[in-house]
Amino acid sequence: MSFRSPLINVMVAAARKAARGLVRDFGEVEQLQVSRKGPADFVSQADLKAERSLVADLSKARPAVGFLLEEGGETIGEDPKYRWIIDPLDGTTNFLHGIPHFAISIGFEKEGEMIAGVVFDPIHDELFWAEKGKGAYVNDRRLRVAGRRELREAVVATGITHLGRPEPDRFIRELSHLMVEVAGVRRSGSAALDLAYVAAGRYDGYWERNISPWDMAAGILLVREAGGLVTDLAGGSKLFETGNVLASNDVLHRPLLQYVGDKASYPVMTQATGPGLLPHVP
Ligand code: IPD
Ligand code: CA
Ligand code: CA
User: Fold this and answer.
1) CA distances from 101 to 156, 184, 245 (A)
2) Residue 17 phi/psi, 5° resolution?
3) What is the pLDDT of residue 280?
4) Which of the chain's ends, N or C, has fewer CB atoms near its CB within 10 Å?
5) Which domain holds residue 189?
6) CATH number, domain at 27?
7) Which of 142, 160, 187 lies at the terminal end of a domain, its last residue?
8) Per-residue pLDDT at 31
9) What is the DSSP string of 14-37?
10) Does residue 202 sit in the same domain as residue 255?
C-alpha cells in the first residue's frame, strides 16, 4: 500500500515470499503425521528454508545490516547501528501438529530500539506491521489495544511452560491466582501472534517468561504503536535480557503485574472464593 514506507515494503515482500514456502510445506505436514517418525525433520527443513529466504531478500535490500536469527544465530553487519531480529517460523509446535496458527516475525532494530516490525500469519492472511511513530496495522486497518479496564473482563494469553522449559512451579502459581480473576486465559503457541493480538485488541494482555528476542521483537513494536504498554516482568525495559514480557493496555498493566510480575503479591481477590489453588508464596 502506498502509505507503507520502503522499509516496511521490503519486510512485507520478504515475509510474503518466505511464507509461500511455509504454506506449501504446511500442506505436506498433514500427510506426514501418520508416518512413524512424524514430520519433525521435514518441519525443521521448512523452518531453515524460510530463514534462508528471508536473509537473502533482506540482505539484498540492506546489505550493511546484520542479523539475529533463531536458527542461524547472530551476524554483525557493517553498520552495527541496525539489526534484523527474525523468527522464520513462530509456532513450530502448531505447525508440526497441523494446527493453523503460526507466523513469520521480522523486527528491525536501530541502536537497541525496535523501529519496524512485521508479523505475518499466512494461513489467515493477516499481515501485522508497525513502524515507530507511524502506528500499527493489520493489513490496511489501524490497530488499537483494547480499552477494557477490569481484569474480570479481560482475556489474557500466555505461554504454558512445557517439556524442557524452566519454572513450571512459578507458572502454575501465577496462573492459579490470575485465572480466577479474568474472563479467560489462552495459550496460542505463537508469542509473536500473541503480541499482535494484544495490539489488535483481541487479547487484553499477554505474559510469558523465558522467551527469546526473535519471539517478541516485532510484536513489542506492534503493541507500543497500538497504544499499549510492554515491559519485562519487573515492570522495566529489560525484555531481551530477561526473556520476560507483559503486554496490555496501560490500565490493566499494573494489576496484571501484581499477579504475574516478579514481585507478585496476589493482592486483589475479587472473584475467587479463596486465595487460589496453591498457597501464597512471597
Ligand atoms: C515458541 C512460541 C511459543 C512460546 C515459546 C516459543 P517457536 O516459538 O512462540 O508460543 O511459548 O516459548 O519458543 O519455537 O515456535 O519458534
Ligand atoms: Ca519463536
Ligand atoms: Ca521459531
Assistant:
1) 17, 19, 21
2) -65, -50
3) 46
4) C
5) 151-260
6) 3.30.540.10
7) 142
8) 76
9) HHHHHHHHHHHHHHHHHHHTTSSS
10) yes
Contact of 39 with 29, CB cutoff 8 Å:
yes
What is the whole-number distance in angstroms between the Cα of residue 151 and the centre of ligand 3?
Answer: 31
Any atom of ligand 1 within 6 Å of the Cβ of 191: yes
Q: How many domains does the chain have?
A: 2
Q: What band does 30 get if pLDDT is binned at 50, 70 and 90?
A: confident
Q: Give the phi and the psi of residue 216 in degrees, each rounded to 5.
A: -120, -10
Q: What is the rounded average pLDDT of the residues 184-200?
A: 98
Pairing of strands 73-75, 82-90: unpaired
Quote the Cα angle for 50-120-243, to 5°: 85
- Is 274 domain-assigned? no
Is 277 among the domain residues? no
pLDDT per position as a tens digit, 166-178: 889 999 999 999 9
In angstroms, what is the span from residue 159 Cα to ligand 3's centroid?
14
In the sheet with 66-69, reading across from the earlier edge strand, the strands are 73-75, 66-69, 82-90, 103-110, 113-121, 126-131, 135-138, 141-142
Grid cell of 250 as nine digits: 496501560
Query: Using a 6 Å cutoff on CB, does residue 87 contact ligand 1?
Result: yes
Residue 11 in contact with residue 116, Cβ under 8 Å?
A: yes
Last residue of a domain, one of 142, 167, 191: 142
Ligand 1 binding pocket includes 248 (Cβ within 6 Å): no
- What number does the ligand 1 atom closest to the CA of 189 have? 10
Model confidence at 32, pLDDT cuts 50, 70, 90, reads confident
